[in-house]
Amino acid sequence: MRLVPAIALLVLAIPACAQLYKPPTGAVPGESRVATSAAGKDVRVDQRLGEYVPLDAKFTDDSGQEIRLGDVFRDKPVVVLPVFYRCPGICAREFAAISASFAGFKKAHLGGDFDFVVVGIDPKETHDMAATKKDEVISQALGGKATHDLRIQAERGTHFLTGDIGEIRRVTDALGFKFTYDEASGNVVHPQGLMVLTPSGKISQYFLGDDYPQKVLLDSIKKAGANGIGYRDDRPFFLACVQLDPLTGQRTINILNTVRTLGVATVLCILIAVIYSARKYKTPGGKG
Prior knowledge:
3-stranded antiparallel beta sheet, alpha+beta, 38% helix, Glutaredoxin, 288 residues, 2 domains
């Protein structure tokens, strides 16, 4: 009977699948200007849905004004992105991705329907750096919609902040955004993470990685605007066969994850073959 060998093959493949199909149980890997291998349990995103950020945290905005975080929270949902402005790798990709998503919104407008707050996590960066990056990002986010009125509106609703490490950590810790900062070398090791907050500063949604689908992001913004809470971002990172070099921004093949993916695909093919053989075996014309 051809069914017996097929079942035996599937049984033998299951342990291998268990080894290959292994989602990470630890921290989400960090991305930074130093080697990702340096990131460990101290670099991760803990999703703290429903919790609040400290609106009394003190920062300097992109115009050089001393403010509190609550000053940039109005009556609108807020998209928050923790990065550092001189980051040559993954931060640039995050800015490009979020700008592309904003530019694709047809009826929702930056500064009109939602605000955007970038929290600079390198305490050595200045408000001048923040202002330069803000101007660049707004231009990208408006895309072909860059009328004078929309530009003014976007500038009013976009805030690029800098601050000292103590105030920065108050906010990032509340967001669950765990990063390391070496004052001597200036190295910053951080994960990827974007958050959507309610107008009162409550965390409504997380996006891990640098992929912000327009419809999903817009739905999350609308939900936050209604003081709703979204769902955990539990996308399968173990299936990411391409990884990004945080130093160069270049993509390379992740061999281990590729093998894992192929292992899962192989077992699925075997399962399909077993089901097909079983159906054929039960068919009156089939041979046993």
